[in-house]
Each structure stands twice: as C-alpha cells, then as structure tokens.
Amino acid sequence: MQVTFDNKSMQKLFITKTNQLNDFCQSFSYQPHICLDTEFVRQKTFWPTACLIQIQGQHGIGVVDVLSPDIDLTSLHNMLYDKSILKILHSARQDLEIFWYLYGQIPTPIADTQIMAMICGFGETISYENLVAKIVGATIDKSLRVTDWSQRPLSDRHIEYAANDVSYLLPIYQHLVKKLKDSNDLQLEILQELISELENPKTYVVKPENAWKKFVPKYVKKNELLKIKKIAAWREIRASQLNLPRQILLSDDKILSLAKYNEYRLDGLITAVWPNATDTTRQKLAEDLNAVIIDASQFLIGDIQDHNQSLQRESSIMLVDLLKLLVKIRAAEQNIPYYIICSTDDIQSLIDNPLISNPLLSGWRYRLCGQDCLDVLLNRKSISIKDGKIKLFSINHLDNK
C-alpha cells in the first residue's frame, strides 16, 4: 500500500541571508521533527565542503546556501542541536559527517530511513529514489546527481532538485514507523544499535591504522603488508592535516608499488607525492614518507617470523568460511546484512581465542549466532543439509535445530 502525499503544495525557499534563515528556523519552534539532507563536494579536499543544507518541516522546505557570504548559521545550529527535535535523514552517515566537521558534534536524536527500511525488508542499502517510488509512488529526478554544488549561481532547477531530496522523507518515515511495529525485539535492538553508532562522534574520527583496509588487494605478500599499513596511515594523517584528497597526495597504486621494493631513492618519492605542490613541500613530504618506510622495513624480519608462526591460521580458512556461512544464515533469517553482525576478522579472532573480547560474544549478536559459532568451534554442534536446507544439529544428534 502506497502513501498519498502532495509534494507540489510544499513551499520551497532558497535561503541566502541571515534574516531569512532566522525567520525560517523560528517557524520550526515546537515541531517534533525535521527532515534533513545536504549537498557537498569533496573532490578537491579530504574533508567534505558543505554547500547546501535542506530542511523540511510543517511549514515548507528551506534550501540553505551555506556558502553565501551574507548568512550567519547560528539559528540553524541551534535548531540542529535542539535535542527535543528528531532529525530524519536517509543514508545519514555522510550528512552527519558534515555536521560533525562543521560543529564538532552530531545533531541528535536522529532517524535514518535507509536503516529503518532495511529492518522492514526493503533491502540493505535501498536508495531514497527507490524508497520514494515504492512507498509514495512518485518519481525523483536524479539527472543532477553529479553536480558541483559549490558553483554559484544555482539555477531554479538545482534548487528544486535539492529540495526534493527531503520533500518525501516525512511520509516515508511515518510509513516505516508503522511497519516497524511488526518487527521483533531483536530487529528493534539492531535498529537502535545502528542508530546509536551514527550518533556516536567516534564513528567520524579518522582511524589511520585502518586506512589500508579500503584498498589493499585480497592477496598480498606478508613482507609488503606492513609497509602498506604504515604508508597508508601516514597518508591518512597527512591528507587530513592538509585537507587534501588521499589520491592526490599519494595514490593507492603508488602505495602498493612502494611496498614492493626494499630500497628507495628520495627523488623517486618526491615524484610520487602531490604532483601540484611546490618543490619545497614535496621535498619535505618525501623525506617524511621515507622515514616511515625505513621504520616499517626495520620490522619486516619480525613480521616474517610472526607470519611463520601464523601458518596454522592460514590453514583455518575453511573454518572461517564455515562460520561465516552460519552468520549469513542467521542474518538472512532477520532480513539484515551479515556484515552488521561481525567482520571476517571477528570470526578469525573467535577461532584463534574464543576467550578474548569479541562482538560475537555479547548482546544480540551472541543470542543470534555467537552461541552457535562457539558450539561449532567446541565440537558441540555441526552444520548439515537437511530437507534441502542448511541446519545446525548437536553432535550427539539430540536437540535438533
């Protein structure tokens, strides 16, 4: 059943001046919720540059020009961080990252219609466009998806496009709230955890030590991996400090190439980093990078020894796949993506040492599949196929599940 909603009657205002923004925000006093979206660019920067903030309430839609020289955003800030107002977004993470970068805090409480839709069975990453089509029966024009929102002036079409990104959020949210009443306690617990993660500022803190995971090949030599980790961490830190895109500072391909060799010429490193920087800047960056590579190389012998000690782990890859299958089965039963439950590293850690802290051993994850994973590891239960379905059964063939 689709929701009836008249989008055309919603008043839309392009806000470029402080007095316009103050009046608009005043109209939201005592409203229980607002709908939010942002338009930003980050092709030339490490951090996203906010260009527009779209807000919908009972009295219309405001498209706020964040880049206008004639606007003070104080009243917007006060409204965003009013904890009595629920902020409704779709696929909220990048939008919330912008607010965190602008103000150093997350506007709470929030609702994310993409996460809500996932719990309701619409798929794990359904787009706003498809959700509008399924719930409201309307079509969203996405022809301006690739736009440089920092360019001024903006056309009426661009403003209309930006406004439409919030114009259907409220009826979608209200529809999903009704559907969530049919969800079980576990699904609601998962929903709350995912929302809490979005509301946690730590979610948006750069973690240099994990930067390598975004681009490293599946199969890489152990004597190269440590260098990749160190260089990627260096790039993450320097790029954030310089507010420069990672790939412009030092591309993924160049990191992988640098990790293959044991000796480097400084002039080669100078060529590799930030092509458009001054010679002095490139010289300093190359010297800094060279020190990181030398430091990583000093630990390679120990790393290889550790690798030799972990050959047994490599032989457990089939057990990892087996437990991952079990996790996927349990995830499918709840209509959630399996990666929400745990990572491959979490499964490997459980195999290596089931006594240490692990996400699978607490809360809803333990109830959903952690206990089953432990039972398989401890040879109390096994996985089999019965009646064309994968089943978990006890080793003594009692307590069939």
Helical stretch tally? 18
**Which range does the strand content fall in?**
5-15%
* Shape, principal axes of CA atoms: flat
CATH classification class of the largest domain:
Alpha Beta
Using only CA atoms, what is the Rg?
25 Å
Order of helices and strands: EHEEEHEHEHHHHHHHHHHHHHHHEE
Number of DSSP strands?
A: 8
Structural class: alpha/beta
The helicity comes to 40-55%
**Main sheet summary:** 6 strands, mixed
Second-tier CATH architecture of the largest domain: 2-Layer Sandwich
The whole-number mean of residue pLDDT values reads: 88
The low-pLDDT segments are 301-311
Q: Supply the number of structural domains.
A: 3
Strand order of the largest sheet: 1-4-3-2-5-6
Q: Under CATH, the topology of the largest domain is which?
A: Nucleotidyltransferase, domain 5
The CATH superfamily of the largest domain is identified as Ribonuclease H-like superfamily/Ribonuclease H
Distance between the termini: 36 Å
Oligomer: single chain
Question: How is this structure best described in words?
Answer:
- The protein is an alpha/beta fold and 401 residues long.
- It has three domains: 12-204, Nucleotidyltransferase, domain 5 (2-Layer Sandwich), CATH 3.30.420.10; 208-309, DNA polymerase, domain 1, CATH 1.10.150; 312-394, DNA polymerase, domain 1 (Orthogonal Bundle).
- It has 18 helices and eight strands.
- A six-stranded mixed beta sheet has the order 1-4-3-2-5-6, sandwiched between helices. Strands 7-8 form a two-stranded antiparallel sheet.
- Helix 9 (222-242) packs across helix 11 (252-258), helix 12 packs across helix 13 and helix 16 (317-333) crosses helix 18.
- It is flat, with a radius of gyration of 25 Å.
